[in-house]
Amino acid sequence: MVDRLPQGPFRNCMEWFDSVFPLFDPEEFSFLMVLLWNIWNRRNRWLHSNQLVPARLVSEYAQIVHGGFQQSNEDVVSQVACVRKKNWSKPEQGHIKINVDGAWKASTRTAAIG
Q1: Mean pLDDT of the chain
Q2: Residue 56 covered by a domain
Q3: Which of 59, 66, 100, 111 has the smallest number of Cβ neighbours within 10 A?
């Protein structure tokens, strides 16, 4: 995975992310993000608490967290697949109805909610 990471210079982190995103499939990219988050946490523990977590544990914990992340995504997808589409109905007297929706366009990596 590391051998596929682009070399700089980059003007900012978003430029780096934009160059990294297309190089990995979604599962690899999500693992990379979890790993980077764990490296950042290791740095913060070292700076703020003088605790240096071994690199091996950082990697192992990233794998555990990523596994949980993947499992929760699978659970959500299976639950969403079970939802039946219904027509709008007026709420009962004394109740408030709030409708929400979201969309994701993978080709432009944009999302919207409403």
Answers
A1: 82
A2: yes
A3: 100
What stretch of H or E contains 103?
A: strand 102-105
Q: pLDDT at residue 48 above 90? A: yes
- Whether residue 79 contacts residue 56, with contact meaning beta carbons closer than 8 Å, is answered with no
- Residue labelled with tokens 């079970």: 82
- Model confidence band, residue 20 (pLDDT cutoffs 50, 70, 90): confident
The four Cα atoms 24, 29, 35, 38 give a dihedral, to 10 degrees, of 150
Q: Give residue 76's domain range.
A: 25-83
* Residue 8 forms part of a structural domain: no
pLDDT at position 99 over 90: no
DSSP helix/strand/coil, 84: coil
pTM: predicted TM-score of the whole model, two decimal places: 0.56
Dihedral over Cα of 10, 56, 1, 62: its sign: negative
